[in-house]
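Notes from the 1:1 (GR / supervisor)

We went over the backlog. Supervisor wanted to see one worked example end to end before approving the batch request, so GR pasted a single chain during the call. The sequence is below; no edits were made to it. Supervisor asked that the structure be written out right there so they could see what the output format looks like.
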Amino acid sequence: MSPPATLHLLLCTVNGVAFGFDVEHVTAIAVPEAGVAPCRLLGMLGVQDGAAGRPALSTTSFVLSTRTRDGIRPIAVDDLEDIGEVDMAQLRPLPATVEPLALRTGIWAVWLRGPRMVFLLDPLRWAATPPAAPTSPAPSSAEPSSPSSPSSPSLL
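Structure output shown during the call:
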């Protein structure tokens, strides 16, 4: 009988949310350089880090160099928690309602680590450089913005 398939994960947190990277996709770990602003992990996932008028809770403590589909991309995280081996049978698929969005952002599974959910990321779905931010015209004073218009979700 062959042993169960396992995955070696680097666990990190951003704003208290746990994420896991296959260690094969992390090429280096460093502290942030002064004056250099690496891409924040939450921003890559399309989540607003902080809400309007309130500061973000997270602070960059480490920068992970991750292997993407076309190069290396530095990603800022708050804290590194652990490196461990996980049995693939313990991983849970994403709910069908969030799967399309999650797959676009590189989230491919969830691991329940005790009472905590860990979102597993696949940086091979990312580009080495972030796409240009979409530009949209500013609302005119004659057209007030609707409070029900879609926006990035906030973790606060």
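Supervisor's comment: Residues 9 and 22 are 5 Å apart (CA to CA).
Batch request approved.
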